[in-house]
Amino acid sequence: MGSPGIGKSTLLCLLAFYLIFKHKKNVLMYRRLTLFKQENCLLYLGYDGDKAVFFLKESCKVSEAEPIYQALRRQHGDANAWLLLDGFHHHQISEGLRTYNMLATSQQVKLKDHEITDAYLCLFPCWRKQDLFKLEEQVYHFDAVEMDNRYYYSGGSVLLFTLPTIDLIEQAIRVALHEVSDVARIISTQSTSATNDSQVDRLRHTFIEDVANLTHYTKSSH
């Protein structure tokens, strides 16, 4: 889990290819899309014998994804059929998809007592200022003043930081501000984000103290 716009979806895609080619798993990725005129999409990467196969369904409702997933579980077994969910809220996942293996989300995950022993939470932190600036220097070549202005509005969100113009970054932040009804959440000292559709986490990003310490990615106290 982690703040919006920091690359959780990209990391999940990399993990999918790692599972497929390193561990020979059959991976079903189901992504929840919320932008105007966008629908959930489904991607399968796996094997038919020794042959690598894939299929893509660009518009896929939950009612369509569930039977596909269940069929893959029956065909390959639970250990070899992995479901990766992207952008879903933990408390809103339908019953037919709850046996997922990985979930990328910006929302708080509340685990029940019996789930804690089998589940792992990992924070994907926001980008540090120096890392964003290195990215810009190597790829986008903005000058120092523009990079400072971009970081001022975007914080640690690489998605916002790399938008074509600063005006677009400001516009995205203004939209997020209008979606926050509980202002107290912005100055909250709690490390986790809201479980509703509030845009507060686009304004109050989550970082960790020491990027070299692996425990800081898994312990909420950091």
UniProtKB/TrEMBL annotation:
This is Crinkler (CRN) family protein. It comes from the Eukaryota. The chain crosses the membrane at residues 6-21. The lineage of its organism: Eukaryota, Sar, Stramenopiles, Oomycota, Peronosporomycetes. Keywords: Membrane, Transmembrane, Transmembrane helix. It comes from Phytophthora infestans.
